[in-house]
Amino acid sequence: MRTALLAALCWSAAFAPASAQTTPAQTTPAERARIDRITARTPLIDGHNDLADQVHDLYGGELARIDLTRWGTPQSPLQTDIPRLRSGRVGAQFWSVYAPAELRGAEAAQAVQVQIDIVRQIVADHPEAFEFAATAGDIERIHRAGRIASMLGMEGGEPINGNLAVLRQFRAAGVLYMTLCHAQTTAWADSATDAPQHGGLSPFGEDVVREMNRIGMLVDLSHVSADAMRDALRVSRAPVIFSHSSAYALTPHPRNVPDDVLRLLPANGGVVMVNFYPGFVSDEVRLWSAAQSGEAARQKALHPDDPAAAAAGLADWVAKNPRPAATVAQVADHVEHIRDVAGIDHVGLGADFDGVPFTTEGLGDVASYPNLFAELMRRGWSDADLAKLAGGNLLRVLRGAEAVAAASH
Question: Which of 48, 143, 253, 337 is catalytic?
């Protein structure tokens, strides 16, 4: 058991040298001191990290092939490791366990089970750094001990195979939230990025939300359509989360949350955890990405039997049309917009690291959260409001869900 002194030393450790960082430091000593004070008292909780999927896809799930105790190198594609989590002041992390949207039934469930096993191995292999948390109280206790609280969040509802018993099994396996769907519409929930079939949630989809309330599983509304968001907010008795979404009013990507939904959050108590991905926080990047997708389709049509020629054509287009940069200031704009519309009690952080093909300048990996905090400090944010953003709001949401579940039994 770590002593309080050891825990304090863990949280007050200096940032890694600038020469070692994959994300450049953008904070002053005074800002870092404020960040340390805030994150020592309140755990910085991130809503969504896809490390398990990267370990599965890039390394065949073989953890022996990577060293999470070493700060990432330029050769490593990973945006997450223990030193960078420490430098980023992360106190708790929801690890995404994901099934590709095209998988169905038992295949989807198996994909999630494999990723649950990867996360469990990571936590077991590094007990000095990680510990599983099941409750808000656990998160706070683990944070005080100087470790990073670890929770499972299942991305996509397809793995339950339309069966509430399977949902309960995932909850018993430690899954603390479920995203109702992913990139494709399911048999019971409309996706934000697919053709709607239910006008939001089907009657069974509403039953899923009620059962998640009963068993203390957070309802995650990232990836669902705006109508599904509204349906879930109407049905849910517990606060919901958006584990990795931003503001539609600033970047009108269907993955983002429209203002009318933001205005519903105070009555529900939920929280939008802002995504750092450039395509969700910069409209210039969103439009560039759409144009790139169109060019990829054009090249494929021009060269249906020659993938190499199609790839070369797309590479030439990208060289002539470089991707715009997204900035820390734009992410801060999304944070402030959600605060302004929904209220300071309804915004959090869900960066989506290791789940995106490219990142925002200054927010390139899990070491970079202080850069966002420094930007907000310069805009006049108080320590109390930054603590709510960091993790205070999510802890309140989790306690609310725990209370609803307790009252259901």
Answer: 48
352 is catalytic: yes
Fold topology of 28-282+325-407: TIM Barrel (3.20.20)
Question: Is 190 in contact with 224 (CB distance < 8 Å)?
Answer: yes
- Residue 202 has a pLDDT of 98
Out of 46, 53, 155, 231, the active site residue is 155
Q: Supply the pLDDT for residue 6.
A: 27
pLDDT given at position 73: 76
pLDDT for the residue 23: 52
Q: Kindly report the pTM of this predicted structure.
A: 0.93
Under the banding of pLDDT at 50, 70 and 90, the label for residue 31 is very high
56, 143, 223, 337: which one is catalytic? 223
Average pLDDT (173-197) is: 97
* Residue 50 annotated in active site: yes
Q: What is the DSSP string of 314-378?
A: HHHHHHHSPPPPP-HHHHHHHHHHHHHHH-GGGEEE---BTSSSS-BTTB-STT-HHHHHHHHHH
Q: Which of 81, 345, 352, 375 is catalytic?
A: 352
**Where do the domains of the chain lie?**
28-282+325-407
Question: Any catalytic annotation for residue 57?
Answer: no
Catalytic residue at 48? yes
Catalytic residue among 36, 46, 50, 375: 50
Question: CA separation (Å) from 386 to 51, 136, 164, 181, 237?
Answer: 26, 18, 38, 30, 27
Kindly give, in sequence order, each residue whose CB lies less than 8 Å from that of residue 317, ignoring residues fewer than 6 positions away: 292, 295, 299
pLDDT score, position 256: 98
How far, in Å, CA of 331 to CA of 375, rounded?
10
Residue with tokens 């969504």: 48
Instruction: Report which of residues 103 and 97 the model is more confident about.
Output: 97
- For residue 201, list its beta bridge partners: 189
Per-residue pLDDT, averaged over 169-178, amounts to 98
Exposure string over 101-123, b if 16+ CB within 10 A, otherwise e: bebeeeebbebbeebbebbbebb
Tokens, residue 338: 């959600």
* Beta bridge partners of residue 241, listed in sequence order: 220, 271
Residue 2 and residue 324: Cα distance in Å, rounded?
46
Give the integer Cα–Cα distance in Å for 249 and 272: 14
Residue 223 a catalytic site member: yes
Which residue among the candidates 56, 143, 182, 198 is catalytic per the annotation? 182
- Residue 244: active-site member: yes
